[in-house]
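To fix ideas, we quote verbatim one protein's residues and fold tokens.
>
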Amino acid sequence: MNAALLLVVGCVILIVGYVTYGKWLAQQWGIDENRVTPAHELEDGNDYVPAKAPVLMGHHFSSIAGAGPINGPIQAAVFGWVPVLLWVLIGGIFFGAVHDFGALFASIRHKGQSIGEVIEDSMGTSAKRLFIIFSYLTLILVVAAFASIVANTFKATYDESGVLDKVASSANASTAMISILFILVAIVFGFLVYRRNAGLGISTVIGVAAIVLCMAIGLNFHPLYLDGTTWMVIVGIYITVASVTPVWILLQPRDYLSSFLLYG
């Protein structure tokens, strides 16, 4: 089957699922577009900060679909493209979308609190503790897997005598440099949009252009040739910092800008 036709059919099915099943869920749960969200009700400039709709869309799209280009081809290679396509469409509409939609809805109805706090409020402290333990153990596996993937993507190659092979390591060093520059661009983007009230349209154009510039710089200037263990430590520190930093500073602008790469 032609890949372009497959893509179009998949997009149509997802859109129909959103318009029909998504609308039905919204009605069943009592979504009220006029209801004030916690970001506005409890706005404090730190944890509660109203986000622009396109930025929020990009943030969630990248968070949900970011693993697709990595995981999708691997699954297709193992199981074949038909089972994976069916899982993406059927699972995406009736499982994944409902899960994420429900979690976000429950959080918003509980003053933007995390799922653990929502469970404690609805089911008690014991249920919260069990869920937190399960989530912690699961996230260790997820974080370790992705940290390993990133470290292996960035790491330098050494020959049997321990001498750096710059030729073989050049592509990895370029990827690492581009990624670091991109994080800096995302932080600047978030500061300008949320603290200097810069226009989203012009900021987006500049941000996307900055991504292209980061790629050009990274391809021609990449001095970081570090081993895998060092990158694992660096990635671990980054994950720790990112997990406790208000989303408008790093994660939201990073995901919004990276969503354009995913769309492409």
Q: What stands out?
A: The mean pLDDT is 92.
